[in-house]
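stuck on this chain:
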Amino acid sequence: MFDIAKPPLWNGDAPLVCVERRSETSDSVTFVLVPSEPGCFSYRPGQFVLVGADLAGSPRRAYSLCSTPTRPETIAITVKRVDGGIVSNWLHDHVFVGSRLKVSPPAGSFFLPDETLPPDLILISAGCGITPVMGMVRWLIDQGYDGCIHFIHRARNRENVIFRDELFALAARHANFRLHAALSQAVGRSESRNESFVKEALEGALSDVVTARAFLCGPVDYMENVKRWLGDIGIKPDHIFSEAFFQPSLPVASGAAQAFVVDGPAFDKALPIQSGQSLLDALEQGGVPITGGCRAGVCGACRCRVTAGTVAVTSHETLSSDDITVGYVLACSTTATSDLRVEFD
């Protein structure tokens, strides 16, 4: 009897190869990827990867995995075409079956926990924020989770619901998968649902409000409203987990717009930075080699250290209290309130 050895874990050294490309909506595409050398994947449902584009400056962006770790032979990302999106548009226009991509190992703190799950899980998304929670759904179904999955998704209309056919099929096959779709544009009327649709969908539907956990992904403003509605029905704040897919508004210095400069040992010139402009944008425009991943203060790819000057910050995600004490920031979530000096690890 032969002992079939498992392939080694992929660690990011080898590029990934696209083995399937499928359209989900008119502007979103799923890319299924495998290692270019023998290997398999290990990650947590909901995590993301950084994907590099073959463009000047080698830009990278974070994309959540919509696949499930119960099927470790492949991973999948679903990418929406965005106006002005450098990497997303490059992926749409240049990546097909057989294409190779530079991808980082999975990372991120937004994922389902390992411990025993409660009898009610609430998964809420809007737009392309559906991708990480879809990975969670696929994992739960594969694992035979017997609690209730309350899946609530907001989109413009039926045609813009990513994974639409699969979602309806899951709802038809699994009694514990309860699908609610809020469409902001319905045929024949301007608004199909009122803004507190999440609260209305969940009131009276949870078997145990005290233990229920909620996982949210989408625009920041929408998620803040959802957190309030969840609190109204009794979900504890420490049972609500979220990940932003869009950069929140950055703080602008009070008074008239101001211009500052940023310099550092990694570059040989002082660069302009305007009040309200992210440090990441200023560094990229100045040609400084810095990775901009999620651009929403989540992935930590643009971590750097401000050694002189003052800043305003909207996210410390992935940074420890010690990091913050010594001046580390996420450049995408940081604006200048004076001249700055910046260092990189």
